[in-house]
Structure formats: structure tokens, C-alpha cells
Give the backbone structure.
Amino acid sequence: MSDEEWAFHERFILAIRAPNGRKPTNHRLVLDGIFWIASTGSPWRDLPDEFGRWSSVYRQFRRWTLAGLWEGMLEALNASGLAPRTRSR
């Protein structure tokens, strides 16, 4: 993920991050792992080790899903005009 792409995504992640006293996760690496899963269609257990433990990445994905992170990101991405528009048939 480029620095520009990370700058777009980071604000959403930081906005929902709950302080719980734990050491912060490398959210950029976790997000890269989630995008790897999404782009390959592979099962979570096949996530390469470079992204961390698959169970940890999945757990964070699940937390973000329950917090509504993806909807907020997609709405902002659509509003920004950065994503190409597709024609409906």
C-alpha cells in the first residue's frame, strides 16, 4: 500500500480505535493483509506470515467490520472521486 493510500485509510482506523491499554497493532500491515485476502480470495489460514498471524488479522478485520469501518471508508471513497465510477447496465 502506498503512503498516499495509507493516509486515506489511517484516519478511519484511528477514529474507531478504542484505547484499551494494549500495545498498538501495526494497522497498516493488518490492512495490507486484509486486502491480500480480498484480492486473492484465499482462506484466512493461507495468509502469508509477512502480514502476521492469520487469526490476529482476521480478529481485527472482524472488529472493524462490527464497528462499521468498511462502510465509512467506502462512502468516503465514493465521495472523493478517487474510485472509478462503474456504469450500471
